[in-house]
Amino acid sequence: MPGAEGRRERNDIADLMATLQNGNSYTRLQAARALGEIGAPAVGPLVQALTDRGTCFRWTIAIALARVGLPAVESLIDVVTTRDDPVRNPAVWALAEIGDTRAVEPLLEVMVNGATDCSRGLAAAALLKLGHSAGVAAVEKELLSANETFKGVVFEAVEGL
What pTM was estimated for this model as a whole? Predict the structure, then answer.
């Protein structure tokens, strides 16, 4: 009965998404964990919620997407390359947590051309965490001429990653 199973999974995702929006800190984190365990089927609803204008729980969504792992990478890369900082920054963090090198080029783009030192610094920290030689070299080069705010964000974010 794949139809019934699919409906049950969609209902589970909908219930967990509601908990992400309306739960307390503990239940939101539990929902993020459960959505991560569901995996690929949860990516679409999570990314939709991440990019919705009214969303105020983006970092919890990022936790869920990081737990989904590899199936979320392409969607997260799309968010990083097309959205503004309030949406982009949690996606950058999730990509760093997942650790897939497909994120290197988009993160390099954000580090070099991002609108704010915060966004640029988070991308640089994510590149350092990924450890890809091209990304690390680009961050090292950027740090040589960067302002103190950018450097501070990078070093603070590296400690947090």
Answer: 0.90
